[in-house]
Amino acid sequence: MLKKLIFVPILVFYCVAAEPICTNGFTLVNNKCLKLMSTTTNYNSAEQYCRGFGATLMTVKDSVENDDIKTFLKSSASMVWMGIYCITNEQCFWDDSSKNVSNYSNFATGFPLTDEGNCVYFAVATGKWISGDCDSQQRASVCEMPTTVADDCPNNFNGNCYTFHDKQKFGDAQKICQQESGNLASIISEQENRYIMSQASQLVSGDLLIGATWSTDNNEQWLDGSTWQYSNIDPAYQHIMNCMAIANSVVHFAKGWYSVSCGMPYSFICKRPAGSTVSTTVPPTSTVPPTATVPPTVPPTAADALATVTQNCNSTLPMAPGFFTSPGFPANLAAPIFCTYQLNTIGSYRILLRIIDFVPESSDNVINVYDGDSTTLLGSFNGYTPLASLVSSGNRMMVTFSSGSTESFQGFSVTYTPYSG
Ligand SMILES: *[C@@H]1O[C@H](CO)[C@@H](O)[C@H](O)[C@H]1NC(C)=O
Ligand SMILES: *[C@@H]1O[C@H](CO)[C@@H](O)[C@H](O)[C@H]1NC(C)=O
Ligand SMILES: *[C@@H]1O[C@H](CO)[C@@H](O)[C@H](O)[C@H]1NC(C)=O
Fold first, then answer.
1. N or C: which end of the chain has fewer CB within 10 A?
2. CA 224 to ligand 3 centroid distance, Å
3. Which of 165, 193, 192 is CA-nearest to residue 180?
4. Considering the domain boundaries, does residue 159 fall inside one?
């Protein structure tokens, strides 16, 4: 009898704990968490507001969702920013990943129309989507986060609890995470990376150890057994150590991941499933830090870290992150050329551009970097000027390259990454 009485409340608790919930005052709508910000702002401020929660502006993936959002907003707002950014009238991308808007859209007739602007808002009365100017138009906005599972942990996102800790070496850090029934954090999506970065910037300073090992043969693994399906490795750093950290300090501008020594103490992040007080985690594949190895004789270049290297002159490049070089780099150019590169990133990010190589031959060879679409010059480099890192103010950046009359010129290589400073 006594046994039965104890058993029943546990069962009830289990069922309640598994219900999807929303945190931070978000409302559950069609299995997503939404929050209306009625204050009108430009698109970038709306993105910043959402990112404070680790959220994005809302995405709408089917007609049921479009109707539910209309109902949710009916009496509270008339026009709200949504998380779509259009590079051209044919190419629009969702903010929650760099996926394009292809499967479902509900643009009003004649839209998207980038002449009106590259951002998109939702007209509540009709449920139609309309292009608007990202900077000059002021709109209310709706942020979106995934649901999670009830847990009293302070950093609860998408079914996991995260804790941030002061400096330890890799092995000791993992032991502390295991005492919390978790592991050093894996980061398996852009969404999870965004959440962790938004919290890290509020909770800790300095670089942050994550639960990855990185062998010399470029084999990356997550300690908690997750599949290596997403990466934010910063192509500008060389891979010479076997543990991995998020560059969260000012020195490391890009906030990407880079290799660090397993024997050096760093602040770190633990992750465990939300709603679990006992361990349900996959046993870690290794708790022993991999032994430090000598740096490879030929360190991988930025080109190895990114799948595609673009060499085309005059192109709109794939969404950040990316890597491009002047045509034929590092072979000498056969004839003088002029090239224009248009760079883009999704809504909540800016673009960090780093010129890695620029072989000086003559001051005729010039790289110009413009904010947006060639309006404001951010920097001009001729191979003799010190190279710098440049950040756009919004989602776009334009780079031009002119090789002057010198024919023996080798060219340049550049990386561009999403930047959330
Ligand atoms: C959108 O993505 C799909 C699948 O990745 C691709 O086939 C299609 O060409 C893309 N459309 C646009 C307009 O970029
Ligand atoms: C589009 O829909 C198909 C089938 O419904 C799905 O497999 C695919 O992942 C979707 N693509 C995107 C970009 O959402
Ligand atoms: C790139 O475009 C510019 C004008 O927009 C043109 O002058 C230049 O020749 C083009 N470069 C190449 C290599 O096609």
1. N
2. 50
3. 165
4. yes
Last residue of a domain, one of 258, 273, 288: 273
Residue 10 lies in a domain: no
Residue 90 Cα to ligand 1 middle (Å): 9
Name the 3-class secondary structure at 396.
strand
99 close to ligand 2 (CB < 6 Angstrom): yes
Q: Which atom of ligand 2 is nearest to the CA of 103?
A: 1
**Residues 42 and 74 both lie in one domain:** yes
Rounded to whole angstroms, how far apart are CA atoms 175 and 78? 51
Coil, strand, or helix at residue 388?
coil
- The count of other CB atoms within 10 Å of the CB of residue 297 is 5
* Ligand showing the shortest atom-to-Cα distance for residue 103: 2
Looking at the fold, whether 341 and 389 belong to one and the same domain comes out as yes
Ligand 1: residue whose CA is nearest its atom 7:
102
pLDDT tens, position by position, 67-104: 999 999 998 999 999 999 898 898 898 887 657 788 89
Report the atom number in ligand 1 closest to the C-alpha of 100: 1
Judge whether 297 lies within some domain. no
pTM (two decimals): 0.75
Task: Tell me: do 110 and 193 sit in the same domain.
Answer: no
CATH number at residue 367: 2.60.120.290
